[in-house]
């Protein structure tokens, strides 16, 4: 099965460094990055071509992604390396090489990976040359590695979140031996630029602006598995976006665990708002999105930049987590219910057409129904346009996991159900406000359920389906929002 992907051209010429053209494999691998990885990509090409000759068909590879937008972007980087090394990319687990890019933010993400491993093991028994790799957040947990070493011995390669840039080198090691290759780094400051990537959509792309997180919310495992916060240099980010724009990208999504603290640790510090202003100057980029914001760091400067911008989308994802000040304190979120409400009000008053979305956790240790009522109160007052609600998941190693007052599942579920119906009601009301308006939509794809329709996204992230020519995919067109279907619209292109 084929997969529609676009291979990105490199943002800058860094890769040339001491090497122009094809790396010379008769010499030692270069020490500096990314030249070293280009050397190993070339070496992989040989191994892959030999194996494909032996098997009599081109080798296929699939990257299966769990979790957030960061992981999705990491998977594009893995796919970019696989494509350059000579694999044909597919999205089927039937592939000759399957890589699971894992998530561990909640336990159900881990369980899904173990489920997939059981399935892929049965395929590998029928097809012994098949290879399997695991990477991503879950692999940063020592207990997971132990479990895989004892119960999933067929896995060929395991690496983590800090050494993803070494993927080509690890692939070579995998080809050169027949034992399980495990390479996990605890943490690193290193950011390697200018490696290949592929993109799922030709017209939009995620861009990492920072890695890691220093906030240590007490329930969250991310700071432990993604390491300390580090920002990419603005010139690298802007260079990458310019090069994407030159390749036809019109929408960029700036990615970080806490974009509002971007740039604080740079040699020459720079605010996120300032970075946005610079991205806005880039010709060809028509829409700018970003994820995720932490309420404690969201500045007036950012609100002002958003309010005055034509390109920054009318959407802000602002995780609330809880509406109870007591629980927020135990979560180490560093804002109160009142501060969150005041911030949301300020944003709505300065950017009236903005859509506000959020994340909420129910069942945090010590949470009572009265706390859930506080959260519901915030949902009703802020009127979130959408909210992702999660049952608290106990993550080993986090401070909250050691708290004694864990909430029984049944109680948490009752609070969750109450919250969910309230969230759905406000989301429906918010979407209904748009009925009858005409708004610009970026046409993203042919509607997978009804090929006579195109699917587009409004600046505020609402989805609209409407009849139109598939040649419009990647273009921004005005659409009249005719029928409200709760969470999306059916529309008609306006002249
Ligand atoms: N349990 C439940 N939800 C969690 N999140 C993060 N850690 C946990 C956890 N231990 C949620 C938060 C975060 C989103 C990405 O995942 O709401 O914003
Ligand atoms: Fe986790 Fe909090 Fe960092 Fe988000 S800000 S990744 S919830 S620790």
List keywords for this structure.
about 500 residues; binds iron/sulfur cluster; 21 strands; single chain; six-stranded parallel β-sheet; Transcription Regulator spoIIAA; binds 5'-deoxyadenosine
Descriptive report:
Strand 18 (453-458) and strand 19 (463-467) form a beta hairpin. The chain has 495 residues and is α/β, with parallel strands linked by helices. It is globular, with a radius of gyration of 23 Å. The chain folds into four domains: 6-183, Methylthiotransferase, N-terminal domain (Rossmann fold, 3-Layer(aba) Sandwich), CATH 3.40.50.12160; 204-289, Transcription Regulator spoIIAA (2-Layer Sandwich), CATH 3.30.750; 314-433, Transcription Regulator spoIIAA; 438-493, OB fold (Dihydrolipoamide Acetyltransferase, E2P) (Beta Barrel), CATH 2.40.50.140. Mean pLDDT is 94; it is low at 11-19. It has helices at residues 35-55, 69-84, 107-126, 142-151, 167-176, 222-226, 234-246, 272-280, 300-307, 325-330, 337-350, 369-382, 409-432; strands at 6-7, 60-65, 88-89, 97-102, 131-136, 157-159, 181-183, 198-199, 204-208, 210-211, 230-231, 251-255, 287-291, 315-317, 355-362, 386-391, 438-446, 453-458, 463-467, 476-484, 488-493. 5'-deoxyadenosine binds next to strand 15.
């Amino acid at each position: 099965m084929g997969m529609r992907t676009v291979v990105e051209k490199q943002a800058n010429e860094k890769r040339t460094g001491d090497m122009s053209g094809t790396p010379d494999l008769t010499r030692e691998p270069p020490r500096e990055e990314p030249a070293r990885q280009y050397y190993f990509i070339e070496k992989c090409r040989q191994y892959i071509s030999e194996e494909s000759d032996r098997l009599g068909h081109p080798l296929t590879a699939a990257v299966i992604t769990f979790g957030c937008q960061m992981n999705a972007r990491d998977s594009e980087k893995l796919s970019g390396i696989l494509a350059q090394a000579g694999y044909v990319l597919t999205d089927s687990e039937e592939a000759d090489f399957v890589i699971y890019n894992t998530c561990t933010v909640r336990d159900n993400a881990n369980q899904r990976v173990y489920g997939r491993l059981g399935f892929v093991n049965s395929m590998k028994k029928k097809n012994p040359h098949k290879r399997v790799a695991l990477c991503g957040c879950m692999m940063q947990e020592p207990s997971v590695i132990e479990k895989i070493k004892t119960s999933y011995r067929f896995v060929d390669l395991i690496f983590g979140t800090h050494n993803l840039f070494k993927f080509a080198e690890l692939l070579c090691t995998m080809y050169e031996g027949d034992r399980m290759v495990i390479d996990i780094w605890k943490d690193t400051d290193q950011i390697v630029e200018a490696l290949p990537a592929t993109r799922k959509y030709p017209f939009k792309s995620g861009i990492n602006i920072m890695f890691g997180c220093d906030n240590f919310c007490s329930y969250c495992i991310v700071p432990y598995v993604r390491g300390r916060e580090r920002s990419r240099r603005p010139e690298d980010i802007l260079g990458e976006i310019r090069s994407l724009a030159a390749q036809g990208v019109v929408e960029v999504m700036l990615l970080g665990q806490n974009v509002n603290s971007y740039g604080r640790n740079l040699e020459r510090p720079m605010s996120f708002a300032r970075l946005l202003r610079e991205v806005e100057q880039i010709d060809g980029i028509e829409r700018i999105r970003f994820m995720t914001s932490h309420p404690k760091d969201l500045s007036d400067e950012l609100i002002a930049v958003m309010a005055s911008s034509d390109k920054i989308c009318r959407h802000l994802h602002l995780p609330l987590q809880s509406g109870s000040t007591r629980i927020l304190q135990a979560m180490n979120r560093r804002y109160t219910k009142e501060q969150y409400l005041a911030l949301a009000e300020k944003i709505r008053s300065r950017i009236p057409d903005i859509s506000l979305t959020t994340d909420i956790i129910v069942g945090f240790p010590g949470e009572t129904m009265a706390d859930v009522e506080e959260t519901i109160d915030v949902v009703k007052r802020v009127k979130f346009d959408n909210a992702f609600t999660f049952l608290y998941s106990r993550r080993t190693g986090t401070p909250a996991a050691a708290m004694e007052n864990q909430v029984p599942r049944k109680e948490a579920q009752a609070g969750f159900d109450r919250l969910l119906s309230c969230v759905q009601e406000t989301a429906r009301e918010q979407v209904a406000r748009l009925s009858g308006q005409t708004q610009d939509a970026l046409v993203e794809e042919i509607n997978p359920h009804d090929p006579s329709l195109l699917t587009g996204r409004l600046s505020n992230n609402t989805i609209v389906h409407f009849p139109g020519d598939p040649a419009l995919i990647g273009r921004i067109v005005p659409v009249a929002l005719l029928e409200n279907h709760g969470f999306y619209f059916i529309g008609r292109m306006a002249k």
